[in-house]
Structures are given as C-alpha cells and as structure tokens.
Design goal:
Length: 403
C-alpha cells in the first residue's frame, strides 16, 4: 500500500544513492496543476478541498495539502488556491514557495446578453512571479508566460477532469502565480536565458529527483539553445567553460564578458552532444586543467564522484614527454594539479607534457563530435594558458569580433 510522506504519496519514498536515502520532491508544474484542480472544485462546491490527488506523468501519485483558498473580492466565479512546493532532498531554491492558481469561469462571451459558450475552453497564463519569455530558443514563444508544455498539459487535464465531472461548458482562464518568484528569479539563470520578471513553471515528470543531474543538463541545453537562436551567423563560435575559473580566465586574459560563456559544469560529453544536435559549427571550450585533464583520458563527466585520475593522467603525459620514474612518483604524491605543474616546470618537462595532454584532449573531444568542430584552451591559476588546440586562438579571435 502506498504511504503518505511530506505531502507525497509514494510507491517508493526514497532514491538510494550509495549509502544515502534521498527523498523525492514534486515540481512547480505539479503544484500549479494541483492548485488549479482545487480551485476548480472550489468553484463548483463552494468550498476548497483540504487535499488534492494528482497523478504525475512519472506515474507517482501525489496527495497534496491545499495551503490557501479564497474567492476573489466576493466574486463566486473567480477562485484561487495554493499548494506549497516541496523539493525533497534536492537543493532547489523554490522549496517551500506557494504556487497559486486563480481560475476565472466565463460561461458567456462578452456581455450578459452574448451567446453562451457551448464547449470547454481553457486558457493558461502566468501572473506575479512567473517569468515572461523574451528570447527565442526557449520552449515557449517570446511573450508567453514561462510555463512549460508538460505543466500546461497537466493543468489543462486537471481542470478538464473537474469541469467534465460537473458538466461545465464555458471558458476557464487559469492564471498561475508564484509571488516569491520575483525575488527568486535573481538567483537563477533565468535573466540570462531570456526569462524576465520571475521563475519558470517546470517539470517533465511532475517529480523532483534528488540531486538530479538531468535538471542541470536541461539547464545547460536551454542556455545553449538560446545562444543558437541569437547567433547571427551559422559559423558563430559557441564559447563554453566548465565553471567560474574558466569564465574568469577568459575575462582577465582576453576581456571577454564572463556572461558570454555557457557554463557546462562537469557535463563535457553532454554539452558536445547538444552542440551537435543544435547545429553549432564551431565550439571553443576553455577550462582549468583540474577539469580538462580528465578529458585527455576520455572522461566526459568530470565530477570527482564519477572519475578522477588527474594525477595519473598527468604522469602519463609526463612519461611521454620524457620524465623519469622519480618525478612521476612525486607527481602522484601531489594533492592538486597546480602543485604537480610546479614539479613539471622545475624539471623542465611542463611544455612537453602539456603538448601531450592537449593532443589527447583534441582526440577525445573530436571523437565525441561528428558535426561541431571543437577547439580547446587549458589554463591553470598560477601559470595562465598551458596549451591550446590548433585553431583555438582563431576561434577566440572570431568570437571577439562577433561580440
């Protein structure tokens, strides 16, 4: 039998990751759909339900408490209910916010003398705290509320279900609002992605998986899609960096605004796959050696929990450059790549080892990419630029010209 835990009725309450049990959460899309369902029942019965049952696209059934419910300004045809977002063990800034759905029921077009609407129609829009799309490349068109297609479908299905239960024919206007979203938006990627004024109503499964890699990869994909749509030329250079080190390096050494670089985190492989899919012809990856040396071993997810081998790979390149066993043992005893680079420099093998490294990086990124030409720049905090692939500087110059 299913159990109820923190507002969710689970078939399985937790996701096992290693020795940890992590609780699932539910999306803003699920909250909006449940709030709309509650507001619909409130219209027909005069009272809001205490709980709403919602089946998510993932197949997990939710039992969500209705936190607030009211008729707007004594108007019996405008109802509003709120559901509290819960993110489980996922570090989501929207955890605990209230998601409201205001429903306006219109049985007749225009004036009271106008014809009665003989079919059910549902319009969905965003209110306070829900962002507006301002750039092409996002899922919704420019000017639309940033409510993605799956949440829109969920909202429409829940309202339709209730309206059919009470044989309602007419227009239902659904306005989703997240008052806290105005402030929260500044803490997200939304402004740089082209979503202004609030946060997005998201979710493809209705459920938040704790520590979800998919959510991060989806965010990277959206940012790359926006870059693709805004590019004036087919040959536009997409500039990418794993993190803030790379973005700071680009600004300090080349005067490139750090906001111009897409941050791909540890997902080098997925980023290259997405660049191919979106049709980018040229991609320049700039990053710290601590991340990118892993790529020289064919490691395309550079998170330390997935793979490390930084010092082992550095030893391999040092050996190919002519380093002896004693130097290699010292490198393996180092804590950081920066410390190991000091040893290579003092021994006179740094430049040769970096040539070996960049050739292997070039091999693996080009093996991963069948359409996009990928060039790479590798740097270190104490050394600056360490190595780059053949056409990396040309890509960099072209990117600066385009800007």
């Amino acid at each position: 039998m299913a159990e109820i835990h923190s507002g969710i009725r689970y078939m399985e309450q937790f996701l096992q990751k290693g020795s940890k049990k992590l609780a699932y959460g539910y999306t803003t899309g699920s909250c909006a759909a449940a709030a709309a369902k509650a507001a619909a029942y409130m219209y027909f019965t005069g009272e809001a339900p205490e709980h709403v049952i919602l089946m998510t696209p993932k197949g997990i059934e939710l039992d969500l408490a209705v936190e607030e419910a009211f008729f707007e300004a004594d108007k019996k045809d405008i109802t509003c209910c709120a559901i509290k977002k819960q993110s489980g063990d996922d570090p989501d800034i929207t955890n605990g916010v209230l998601v409201y759905a205001k429903l306006t029921f219109v049985r007749q077009e225009g004036t009271a003398a106008a014809e009665e609407i003989n079919e059910l129609r549902i319009n969905i829009d965003g209110g306070t705290g829900v962002g507006r799309v301002t750039k092409k490349g996002l899922e919704q068109p420019v000017g639309a509320a940033a409510i993605n297609s799956i949440p829109r479908k969920m909202i429409a299905e829940q309202v339709t279900q209730v309206c059919e239960e009470y044989d309602y024919k007419g227009l239902v206007q659904v306005c989703v609002s997240i008052p806290a979203g105005v402030e929260l938006a500044a803490k997200t990627f939304n402004p740089r992605l082209g979503i202004e004024g609030g946060i997005s109503v998201l979710g493809t499964s209705g459920i938040v998986e704790p520590m979800s890699e998919k959510a991060l990869i989806d965010t990277i994909r959206v940012e790359m899609s926006v870059k693709r749509e805004s590019a004036e030329k087919e040959s536009h250079v997409l500039l990418v960096s794993p993190g803030n080190y790379g973005r700071s390096f680009l600004y300090e050494h080349f005067g490139i605004d750090i906001e111009e670089a897409v941050k791909c985190s540890n997902y080098i492989g997925e980023m290259i796959d997405t660049a191919n899919e979106l049709g980018f012809q040229r991609l320049l990856l700039a990053g710290h050696i601590g991340k990118l040396i892993k790529v020289s071993g064919g490691i395309m997810n550079t998170h330390s929990a997935n793979a490390d081998a930084r010092l082992e790979l550095l030893v391999a390149h040092a050996l190919r450059a002519g380093a002896d066993a004693e130097l290699c043992r010292k490198i393996l005893d180092c804590i950081t790549t920066e410390e190991a680079l000091q040893l290579l420099q003092s021994s006179g093998y740094l430049e040769a080892a970096m040539k070996q490294m960049i050739s292997k990086i070039a091999y693996y990124v080009r093996k991963r990419s069948d359409k996009t030409q990928v060039e790479v720049i590798v740097f270190a905090n104490d050394f600056g630029e360490l190595a780059c692939t053949e056409h990396a500087k040309l890509f960099l110059r072209d990117f600066i010209k385009e800007g």
